[in-house]
Protein 1
Amino acid sequence: MNIGTLAKRSGVPAKTIRYYESVDLIESPARSENGYRVYDEEAVRTLSFIRKSRELGFPLEEVRSLLGLWQNKQRSSGEVRALAQSRIQDIDSRINELQRLRDELGHLVHACHGDHRPECPILEALEPHTERTSK
Amino acid sequence: MNIGTLAKRSGVPAKTIRYYESVDLIESPARSENGYRVYDEEAVRTLSFIRKSRELGFPLEEVRSLLGLWQNKQRSSGEVRALAQSRIQDIDSRINELQRLRDELGHLVHACHGDHRPECPILEALEPHTERTSK
DNA sequence: ATAGAGCTTCCAGTCGCTGGAAGGTCAAGG
DNA sequence: CCTTGACCTTCCAGCGACTGGAAGCTCTAT
């Protein structure tokens, strides 16, 4: 199987597969006489695993750990669970932060006429408090 | 005022101020005889405005637009409102996506014992469906 | 005189790809 | 046999928005 076929079957673009190889996330495959990369079924499984992990938002370094745990039959499920839980905490704090921004922007948009006139509470909110500072 | 003072007063790191200058977000300031950048009160206001905009999550290119509108007394508040509203849409879709991931991970963590044993529904979910494909 | 803080420029790294250039290879069709 | 087009190869650059560090100059205080 060449890289294009692997790309289609795993759902990971060929460019990205080469990139994963360059950062040692996956092993370098064998090469055929013409220099083309040659993959086996195992590669389809590995790349699919990586794709799903990425879709769940795991950063590449955590995908690396997950891959190790996946391939290690002696692993403890506790380690995997811990990784997933810290991901959840990341996600929660990002959601909270986004929610805060959303609310703030929502209030401002609500307060703004949004017409041809220049008065705009949004800009006023961005404007620094103009205190009289000694020059 | 030198760059360090401006940094303290605006809350924007000196490095970042130089960066903003390099991408033409702010004007190049005058230089004193020794080559140091020299800023005025206006710069404090501008940098503070930029900082608050960034804190509200506007990407730099939108900050550029906001700055233009802020400085243009003929602006219409509608333009500003439109920018803020498209930001809200961005944020909403990011929140939704994160929420989806969070739920999915939450289910998986819930299903996983998380002990010393290797069985782990989280890894199983990442694993591709193993269909018998013709070799 | 010297130490330390503050300033200058320029280059590299972050994260995870993605695009493009320049070129080799292969199968099908005229 | 030749060409076309789809593959494949490598390497380099760019995205956003900084941030860190090196090397070197300037200022202030002791």
Protein 2
Amino acid sequence: MLKYQHIADELENYIEEHKLQQGAKLPVLQDLMRQFNVSKSTVTKALELLEKKGVVFQVRGSGIFVRRHKRNGYISLLSNQGFKKMLEEFQLASKVIALDVRKPTKEAALNLNISIDDDVYYVKRIRFIHGQTLCLEESYFTKSIVTYLNKEIITESIFNYITEGLGLSIGFADTFLHVDKLTAEEAQYLELKEGDPKLYVESIFHLSNGQPFDFSKVTYNYVQSQFFIQAEL
Amino acid sequence: MLKYQHIADELENYIEEHKLQQGAKLPVLQDLMRQFNVSKSTVTKALELLEKKGVVFQVRGSGIFVRRHKRNGYISLLSNQGFKKMLEEFQLASKVIALDVRKPTKEAALNLNISIDDDVYYVKRIRFIHGQTLCLEESYFTKSIVTYLNKEIITESIFNYITEGLGLSIGFADTFLHVDKLTAEEAQYLELKEGDPKLYVESIFHLSNGQPFDFSKVTYNYVQSQFFIQAEL
DNA sequence: CAGTGGTCTAGACCACTAG
DNA sequence: TAGTGGTCTAGACCACTGA
């Protein structure tokens, strides 16, 4: 385990356990260096991680403080809060509608940077949150990378399987979103009415080496969809 | 000017000028160290900045590569791409509907962490993109921080004025969003129909020292609203 | 002006990739 | 196995905050 990762985890746990609120002051750098017996840069690296994650903010000349917003029930749009945490917190579940190997659409091939003759796994599923429909999801996985999928895997967390099971390292994602009206088919799956609002999200996920491996199109139920983003400016 | 900031700017310009595409390889760390005559950590810091900004990705054992998505016309939801760039690229304009000093609503006071007896600047404006209505925006600025505003300022970029004019340093923002249907009033302002879809975004902006100074509620025209997010996972 | 976080260095060693 | 980026150190110096 990386030292800075470990320090970040410890600090986050500490904040969680002691239920520290926005603005609570953490120990100064000197103390953290001594406490964990590491150099200044290592502590700094850990704090940068937490800052990116939206857990703390640092003020030069003053100290390190807890950052925590007041609202519950919002899903993080940047999945930097951890997959497992999300799954637990929101009791997500899935129902699989389709799973097969096929040729990609032109659109999918373009986004995955493959030929329309290459194979992809096609996954279509509905996701539920607290027992309500959350979204309708269609995904294309490059088969030469994600070599095997089955119904059991995709009912659980696909990404967890990709990292743990296949030993692949996920790097980054490009996500595009806009708002529109539900088509009849989407409305039926989400148990809403045609013409109701929807949030439509397309994402291209890449491995750490930059190779795209998943192109997904997700239509969210507007009633259930509350998102948040913590940004540094 | 910070060295790592300068290096990051230079590299970004280089990529822009040479129109490097996704996957293009940049010089290795050694070369960048020599080229800019700085230590390894400094180059690393510059590259971390660019990585966070979604400009490059690094692969251990392999190199540093350009990251660039293929879609145009999408607005970045994390304003980490720079305000000025956005304004230029999208030809944003504003029409002011209201500007006054008043007492905050309970909601605004709560989010700004002030008393309902404190003064706030209230701003209501419509923003246009390429001459079309983009959004309807209501903002509350803590008056003790943002001490002065006038119509001219808020017709241009408020944030630019806050940093340049008032010399304040903006730190981070918490943003909450969901999808809903337009009310009659919103529809009128946005030149759409009541019941049409909308993207509704609430943000709380904080100074670098953690103090909230702006609570804003924005309703986007669904036709014009295309957003993207570049995330690291 | 004491104390805090931010920048930067020089160098050791490690983990991974690709030929 | 040579070359690449990632981690970590110890320490100097700088910029900012708050009493």
Protein 3
Amino acid sequence: MFDVDVRSRVPIYEQLVDNIKKMIIQNVLEKDEKLPSVRKMAQEITINPNTIQKAYRELESEGYIYSVPGKGSFVSDTKNTVSNQKIEVLTEELEGIVKELIYLGVPVKKIKTLVDEAEAEMREDGDR
Amino acid sequence: MFDVDVRSRVPIYEQLVDNIKKMIIQNVLEKDEKLPSVRKMAQEITINPNTIQKAYRELESEGYIYSVPGKGSFVSDTKNTVSNQKIEVLTEELEGIVKELIYLGVPVKKIKTLVDEAEAEMREDGDR
DNA sequence: CTTACTGTATTATTATAGTTAATACAGTTT
DNA sequence: AAACTGTATTAACTATAATAATACAGTAAG
């Protein structure tokens, strides 16, 4: 569920932050749901509790979770902002890809055509 | 011309690799053009020659440049080899993101605006 | 009240990657 | 010969991530 790649160049605690953020935004983790305790999570994925704590501290400071000493760490209410945050993330990704395509020599016009094609495809197979 | 951010989390040598790759792909650096020597480049951007060498070694192993001991390092002929496959991959990613954005209610028109903004931002960066 | 959980904090240590530094050697260019 | 090139090697320094070992205080349940 919370998988990390210990060999990745991006730090474990940051992978955790990203993963959990994503799950919260996608509503895989719901409001007030309890996250595994730092020690339990540390056991689960066999890494040091301090690393988990660092991730949780970061998530709390960004408002994604709230922690109560003695009780645990819980998912914050991000309901009203969830969709916006998700769009924000996707927009950033889009920006990066567009920039790469442009420097690879793909003209903006062509990129916009791709956007249209994606929309068309989406209407065809109305799933997802 | 070859600027790096020494405070970035991405290593200097990798920034160099990326920058030079981009310039080659965009044809800012042309086939058989001579790159600054490791020592000269090191002076230019005030970092260690070994770091430059590491970048050049990487670029050579990826086929972007070729180095001749005693002469220098030169841009390879990569036209039509390197970038096409990347464009394919990026196009698929673009498609996925666009579909998600549409699903979230972002109109196609707005997405195209984002494309334009990305292009504009890119031109800003390019002049820096 | 005791026990076993929670989050939190602190300090020390290890591991790793990036970078710098100082040389050295051999090929080339003039 | 002198001044360039790329290349290689070894050592040292730095910053950051991660581990380890504790400790303390709040909460919940028996």
Protein 4
Amino acid sequence: MKKVSLKDIAEITGVSTSTVSFILNGKASEMRISEALKKKVLATANKLGYQPNQIAVSLRTGQTKILGLLVEDISNNFFALLAKTIEDEAEKFGYRVVYCSTENDNKKGQALLRMLAQRQVDGFLITPTLGMETDIIKLQLQHKPVVLMDRYFPEVDVPHVLVNNYGGVTSAMQHLIQQGYERIAFITVDLALNQMQEREDAYNDALSKSSTQKTKSKKNILSIDPTASREEKKKLIARFLKNNKPDAVFFATNYLGILGLECLREQKIRIPEELAVVCFDDHDIFRLYIPDISVVQQPVEEMGRRAVHLLMDQLGKNRGAATKNQLRLDATFVPRESTQKI
Amino acid sequence: MKKVSLKDIAEITGVSTSTVSFILNGKASEMRISEALKKKVLATANKLGYQPNQIAVSLRTGQTKILGLLVEDISNNFFALLAKTIEDEAEKFGYRVVYCSTENDNKKGQALLRMLAQRQVDGFLITPTLGMETDIIKLQLQHKPVVLMDRYFPEVDVPHVLVNNYGGVTSAMQHLIQQGYERIAFITVDLALNQMQEREDAYNDALSKSSTQKTKSKKNILSIDPTASREEKKKLIARFLKNNKPDAVFFATNYLGILGLECLREQKIRIPEELAVVCFDDHDIFRLYIPDISVVQQPVEEMGRRAVHLLMDQLGKNRGAATKNQLRLDATFVPRESTQKI
DNA sequence: CTGAAAGCGCTTACAG
DNA sequence: CTGAAAGCGCTTACAG
């Protein structure tokens, strides 16, 4: 069973490849090809199980109908859900998606961008790593459609869709303050990503503005070196909790939350009786598995859908679409179950 | 900034495209091209930022260097980790991977296989859905390299790599029986997948063989209709637990485990004091988040690596490789933390 | 109504 | 040592 080509069908039916091509692409009536011929060609194409070679089509038309998606780590829930949403949404517009993981490594990210460009993807969806700025600019210079997600470069004018981290943390902090917590700690990662900065700012601002807190407690931040080992990080968190004895703690990332919970377990600190915990939750992990902690939910799915739309705008496939191409979506604070029920 | 092609470089340096192609593909010395010319061509290619158009290369060479990976749901941890492992392993052989989710829907699976074939992927890695059998056979007839993972069709001779589910459940059961549990329940999904059947068989056999259990308890199985809603499933589990009052329960899938834990929480049944829980764990989720339950760990990463190797064998890229092309890997039983420590 | 021909950007025998 | 030419499998003006 060899691959069957347009030419094969043309030979068998005794017409030219052009005619076959027109018929198979639904342009029979447009080209005023006779019904009889059309039926005959369609029938033999069907019988032989003809599948067009998309490689050839792409080379000829200059379109691959493929979108390149660059995420940090596809095995991470946040990015996996993002990828899936994007895949589904892109499909509605007739596009396929190939995903790649940068592992937060710039060299790898650049290599992947190059690879995607070589494969002639029609557009790029990217959660950029630090320092990927110039690569993004290069893509724009080549007139490649690009949309940034989750992170962005304030100085560069690229369509993007972000999360309102500031708002999410603010709601959570207001809730904690209102509930009477007086020693709220904030554990974050020492990374110069703008979304991390935003989260910290929101924490600081919430405390500054709170009249009850203002007098009683001061800011209580642990900023952890991301290059430290897992065990080192845990040690830092454990020591911090022991020294500062907070009555509530805010973990600024999902991963820190996991580490933190391990520490709390080892120290036999009970949640939420002895310590209230709030964590950024990428994919309802905490909500599903540990209902005793409160979460700030990321609008992952909406982010994915919007990003695809912004890309389609650039590809000219989304008629009557968004006027704004730089979006910021809300993150939702969800108090722990027990709180909700009381 | 237009895309630069081989021809551009040929024109600028004043040689033919053939010469440029040879030089750029490292065949300069083989073709005995002068050093000076080689340097000149390389320099201008570099200056212009030349990137070969892989679409054209693929069309010409008949190789895309892309592998198609078909999984059930990429946003599921098990498949996400599998995909990532495969991606990393394939890269070592110079291959890229495109993933697709079947959502356990045959129609969609077939459409995706067709799409991958049209895109001319060089090989297929598949976790097959029920009834995908004929499609797999078709691929083999077209001499497309295929490897099946996690599931297989006993009647069809296709390279595959599976998990020894029977062994994993057996170890877990032996452990429970040895620890003195007397009313061990088994909650599974009513799906005719061979790996589910294996798990249930192992449960039954373990009980039959156990001398202590033989007299005291009989088999206690709840088999849930997979098409039921989440809430219905939870109700079934809750009723089953209430009626049967097991002292240990074995959830045959990760998802059932999550539902079960929700039920236990709602009924305020304490783990492991009032009920021991064992669950199949796809991706260390339970181990990380809930140390009080025991798990049967799937060898996801090894499965991915082995699958790539089996595919490379077929592509002729893995010299001196496996003689066996149907593998079965062990699943590991990991008792809950507290058990380990005592 | 239908066909011959060019061309997408490469690689690779073949010829000199 | 290097170039002219064919061809991978399509699409699409162009001609009749």
